[in-house]
Amino acid sequence: MALIVVVEDNIHNARMAAKLLRLGGHKVILAEDGEVGLTSVFENHPDLVLVDLGLPDIDGQTVIALIRQQATLDHIPLVAFTAWPEETAYQIAKAYRCDGVIMKPINTRTFRQQVESYLKSHALQHQD
Question: Of 52, 77, 84, 85, which has the fewest Cβ atoms less than 10 A away?
Answer without folding.
Answer: 85
